Amino acid sequence: MNWRIKSLEDILANAEKKSLRRSLGAFQLIMMGVGAIIGTGIFVLTAEAAQKAGPGMMASFVIAGFVCAVAALCYAELASMVPVSGSAYTYSYAVLGEVIAWVVGWALILEYAVAASAVSVGWSNYFVGLVERSFGIDIPDAFTRGPFAGGIVNLPAATIALLVTALLVIGTRESAAVNAFLVIIKVAALTVFVFLALPVVNSANFEPFAPNGFWDSSGVGIAGAAASIFFAYVGFDAVSTAAEETKNPQRNIPLALIGSLAICTVFYLLVAGGVVGSVGAQPVVDTFGRAVSPGSEEFAALCALPTNAQALVCSGEPLAHVLDVIGWKKVSQLIGLAAFLALPSVILMMLFGQTRIFFVMARDGLLPFHEALSKVHPKFGTPYVVTIITGLAVTLFGAFFPVGILADISNSGTLFAFLSVSVGVMVLRVRDPGRHRPFVTPMVWLVGPLALLGCGFLFFSLPPKTQLTFFYWSLVGLVIYALYGYRNSPMARKSG
């Protein structure tokens, strides 16, 4: 069987023909990684994790962080060997073949584009809360929520998505500079939160630790929360999509991947401990004492009850809510302001990653109209056509879907991509053991299987509807590949 494996030499040579400008150093990459990771996951989805796991979300953060850590070690080896754009898609093309690469690239659309939409909705929550608290203005829900969340259209989410798209068209270096500034705001806000919340931690708030148990087929429990909170770590792999625009990528890409993940994991555990310990994180339950799934109509009805008005799990801006409850009302507004200012950096990085994946797939001839899609702007040096198309898609998703559903769908694509990378690094160790590896994954025959099993476990801990969405999405992608990519890729012409 011809798997159409594209050699590393061919990938590097093809990248040189239509390459992007190298303008990013190690610091900028680490800031991009932190910018992509710290965002909606910790600022917004903390409440969703609490509804699924209660105080047990502390364990959920550890599980999700561990899976990302072993996946990052696999990513770092492949990224150092193949310093071009494309992330898991490019690595899969070099190791597992064109069909798998296409499915991975198609899955990455779910990771990046849908994640950017989710963060746009998360930003909208903080924007609305900030405006209503600061100016006493009641903004109608019809224009700040999509139809699935009881409104008509989420105009703030659509607006921020369009603004970030415009910034990305202008240039990578300019985007990285804006991102670094926003990351500093974000880290400062989380640091303030930790210093204010940890001193009032009450050990009684950690009981019962796991009110919904460890795992449940409906997606609740510690495992279900880990699968959702995994979104809080998604983004470190966006660093690898910038390889083609990085100075000394063999050194700087692995450094940024592992460094950004380590910084964020420490912050997450401190913030989660502060949230749970200061105000408690018990789920709201129905009349039978069962925790309902966040994002459902039943959950919205329970949160509308006066008895649940102060429940953490019902807040769209949980960190600001915590500080408000423990008496830091003015500071809570500043946390809301920081999230309002900083979350666009995550949208920026998600869109950045998506456009680079699209760009490389188009450059490889696998997408219809690939010549137009792979155009680089003559002035800005950016893949402007795919950036505009992706930005419009993100705008539509953000305008009409709630954050929790979008985050879970994004996670499904991410987990599949991570799984392929963990397989790829082991396959290449066997197939080409003598190739130079600027970064070597330590204990690869332990780390690789752990990444593989961890990603599989989290995928099957997602809600069943999300798993089905991923499989349907993959089928659509395979149909597109069969109708166009299979016959039109350069590998088809080469083998034919």
What's the arrangement of secondary structure elements?
Blueprint: H1 8-17, H2 26-37, H3 40-43, H4 46-53, H5 57-81, H6 87-95, H7 98-135, H8 155-170, H9 172-197, H10 221-229, H11 249-279, H12 297-303, H13 318-325, H14 329-363, H15 370-373, H16 384-400, H17 403-431, H18 444-459, H19 464-488, H20 490-495
Helix pairs in contact: 2-9, 2-11, 2-14, 4-10, 5-10, 5-11, 5-17, 5-18, 6-7, 6-17, 7-8, 7-14, 7-16, 7-17, 7-19, 8-14, 8-16, 9-11, 9-14, 13-14, 14-16, 17-18, 17-19
From N to C, what is the helix and strand string?
HHHHHHHHHHHHHHHHHHHH
Number of self-contained structural domains: 1
Mean pLDDT: 79
Shape: globular
CATH class identity: Mainly Alpha
What is the correct CATH architecture? Up-down Bundle
Low-confidence stretches: none
Q: What is the terminal separation in angstroms?
A: 14 Å
| Helicity level | 55-70%
Overall number of strands: 0
**Structural class category:** mainly alpha
The amount of beta strand, in percent, is: under 5%
* Number of H- or I-type helical stretches: 20
Main beta sheet: none
